[in-house]
Each structure stands twice: as C-alpha cells, then as structure tokens.
Amino acid sequence: MALVLGTVVSTWQAVRARRAEHTALSERQRAEEALSTAQEVMDRFLTRVANVDLQNVPQMEHLRKELLHDALEFQEGFLAQRGDDPRLRYRAAVAYSQVAHIHYLLGEYTAAEASRRNAITLLEQCVRHWEDSELYRERLVDETRRLATTFSETARLGEAEDAFRRALEMARSLLSDFPRSMSGPRQVAAACDRLSLVVQLQGRLPEALRIRQQAVAMHERIIASSPAPENQRPLVESLRRLAGLLVDADRVEEGDAAIRRAIRLAEALTEEFPERAAYWEEVAVNHGFLAGHLQAAGREEEAVEARRRAIAILRRLSDEEPESQRYRSKQAAGYYELAVNHSRSIPLQESQLAIRALKKAMELSGEDRASDFLVMSMAEASLGNTEEALRRYERGVAILQEGGVHSDTEDALRFHEEAAVLLGLEEASKE
Prior knowledge:
The chain is an all-alpha fold. It has helices spanning 2-51, 58-82, 89-105, 109-129, 134-152, 157-177, 183-201, 205-225, 229-248, 252-272, 277-296, 300-320, 325-341, 349-364, 370-382, 386-401, 409-422, 426-430.
C-alpha cells in the first residue's frame, strides 16, 4: 500500500509539475505573442510618423516629437525589463532597432548608432544559434545597412562604405542560401544602391558605375519575378543614378537611354496608379534630370520642354498638398533652371517665381537645406541682387560643408558649382 501510495503521490507531483510547466509555457507564449503584436503596432506607428510630412508643418513638429518620445519610453521600458532574456533575443533586437529609428527621426544620431549596434549584436547571436533562419539573417543585413546609413549621414563615408560592404556580403550569402526567396535579391539591390552613392561621393566614379550597374541588374531580376509597383520604383531611381554616372563617364548615349527608360517606367506607374503622388514625383524628377542632360548637350528647346513638364507636375502636387515643403523646393529649383540655364529663351521673371516658391518652401520646412539656399542664391543673382545672392550662397555652402549624405546632397553639390560660376567664385566651388 505504501508503495502504491508513493507511486500515486509521485505521479501526482509529476502531473502538477507538468501542469505548472505548461502554464508557465503558455504564459510565456502569451507574453511573447503580446510583445510581437505590440512591436508590429510600433512598426506601423513609426512608419506613419516617418512618412507623413509633419516636419513640414511647423505647428505639428512639437506633436511629432512628443509622439516619438512616448514611443521611445515604451520601448526602453521593455528593454529594461526583458532585454537580457535569451528567449526574447530577437524581440529585443527588434526593439533596439525601433529605438534607433526613433532617435534617427529625432536627429539624435549618436544615440541611434548605439541602439543600432545593440540590435546588430543580438541579431548576430541569433544567427549563430539558428544559421538556417532566413528571418534573422535578413534582419541582420537590414540593421547593418541602416547602421551604414547613419555613418553616411554623419559624414563618416569610410565607415559607411565598410558597413555597406558587410551588408552586401551578407546579402549575397542570403541570396546563395535561399535562391527561391525574394529577400536576397532585394537586400543585394538595396546594398548596391547605397554603396554606389557612397563610393561616388568619394570620387571613385568608375567603381561607383560598376556597383550601380549591379544594382540595376538586381532590380531587373526582382521585377522579372515580381513586377509589383513597389519593386519598379527602386529600379526607376537606380536607372536615374546610373544615367548620371554614364554621362559623367562620357557615355552620353547610354545615359540618355537610361534616363528615358526611367521616365517610361515612372509614367507607366502613374497610368496604373494615377492617385499616387510619389509616382508623379518620380516622373517630374526624371524629366528634370533629362532637361539637365539635354541642356549640357546643347539641345536647349528639348531641355526647356522637359523642364516645363517637370514644373507642371510639381506645381500640381504643390496645389494638392499646399503644406508640403518638398514639392515646393523642387518646383523652385525647376524655375531656377529655366531662369538661369535657359536665360536666352526664358524671361528672367522665372527667377521671381523661383524665389517666391522657395521662400514658401523654406517657411514650411523644419530644416535648413543646402540646395534651397544655393538655388535662392542663383535666383537672386540672376535678378542682380548680388549681396543677397552671396549671403544665400555662403549659408548653403556652410550647410554643405557640415557633411553627410542627405536627400538633397546630389542637387546641392551641383547647385554649388553652378552658383559659384554665376557669382564668379569658381575656385571656391572646387575646394
């Protein structure tokens, strides 16, 4: 009897232990599921805050920062409580990534870099333990590329190049190990896109051209498998950058073909999705690039036509979104191009339109952009306002010399040279 009783007690204890273990497991699973849901909500929130032009509406910028600080507090609270739990290593990495993105949106690049490095460390641990996980490896490539972007935007181009090359190497390994997945091609294309730009900014144009051609080839491979519009737009942008490199390499006909192909692809997107402003903006930007190419080739009438096409699109977008600084800045740049580059056939009142558009754009903007000041400088110079033109020029150059790769860097570098020529400061632009 004692033996039977002991067996029953032991069995009951084992049952209770299994129940407790199951309960703990269920609670942990529920906690992880809840955390996963919270992080998905956070991702959607950060995407919306990043994409909406609140920074172009001065009275809303304070609200935007408050929302970001609230999100930061939420994520840091999680990391303080659960960030060292090995079972939640991947979730902690995602949280660190979100914290890094919040710091990035707030312009806190040092804090963004530290959080990004924490995310990378945790993801490297995940990859070592689960080498066959495509999810962990893809996320590691993402975070490495984002760290490289932080370097580039703080004028650390050498570190940016090294990090982009690491991301590219991992992306190619991902492509090799998961050949049927789209994650590998997308990661390779994205790494090549950014690496080409960083190499170009360091003056190694032939190498930048080779990398850009690899990016275009990978984008084409992606579209061959999945011609979705979100896959076509990156190809449009990469083709435009390829066209610029080809023209710089004196391969003008190839550059012309590349930019015209980019325009055709962008226009096809607007025909299929006429309500999407981003696709119309792509058409305008590419027409503007084509105009510059045609002007350099001495084909002035064609250049004027392309420039006016770009301005007409940007003017319509500005009317539809009157609080958007981006459209007004690009519209003003287009007016400048007409006023100065084509001054023999375009009346100089275009400069006045450029100044009005730029003043409105700068009023709406939450930041000082080098390209805005340099375009303003050229417009003022074309009207004979030399003193004001020099003041705007000096401010634009000062911003440009702060370094980094920003959305307007390429335009700013070009406008710097053109403004220097117009003001008789050619030597200064070469320093």
